Give the backbone structure.
Amino acid sequence: MVRNDQPLLDVRGLSVAFRTRGHEQLSAVQELSVSIDPGGSLALVGESGSGKSVSMRALLGLLPANAVVGGSARWSGEGDVPGGTELIGLAPRAFRAIRGRQIGMVFQNAMQALNPTIPLKRQLTEHLRWHGSCTRAEAEVRAVRALGDVGIPDPERRIRMYPFQLSGGMRQRAMIAMAMVADPRLLIADEPTTAVDVTVQKQILDLLIDLRDRGTAIIMVTHDLGVARYLCEDVAVLYSGQVMESARLVDAVEDPRHPYTRGLIGSALELGDDSPLRPIGGNPPDLADRPAGCAFQPRCTAADGERCAEVQPLVRLADAREVRCWRSSHE
């Protein structure tokens, strides 16, 4: 989405590739451009392997050594110079002042992200101590308060527990508390409702809404447009490492312009909706064998064989959305 005001995070042309042992480069993200305003909410939506998590890890400098990252990501956070700080290529020492303190991240699998051999107290307080934000005693007070804020009962007792002693829902809440204990301006939530039941899912989404309403900007990484619609204002729909459609989320859901967006909506299950599911046929392309032209063309029921196999234009529509499909302005 193109905004006129100064965004909190402005990503332009982000590309990520991985070097193989044969020195080939496999492109995982291509020319990703998104932005989020202070207190805003953005959903990155797409199937597994679409580049959602990889792009967010690239922004935080968390990719392995064989990754090649290009493009720009300007962060206009606390204490930044005019125009913001460039995150791509930022030195590790400078990154530590931003990652955790200004940008928090909730990882997808709480049981794997939390260390099972270390009690919550240490895991929630160590990066506060690392950043020099407060004393040991103050860090524990803030950690207990963070657990209470995310709805964990009896936080004074729970903070002394190990992750395996908590339920799946509580572990996910503890992950959110860990990301929020330093009061970051931006929270990146990577599939935060995965592997929890629907009741806990709603509780976690309500918690994220409360954080958003208190001024925290949120980027939600999800494969579920229904989850995104519950929380987010804007959406970027990713497929094979490219943004297929970026728009206000309500516009994308009510009037999708890209066939892939329509496919995601048709394959989503909605309670109370008796219409049959319309799953997208086929599978996403192999990164080593991405088709020419539109990457979605082999699975698209509206494809024009020759035209779609040759070009994939980026169309800017009057409602400020951008769609990577030549049909978008005619439908």
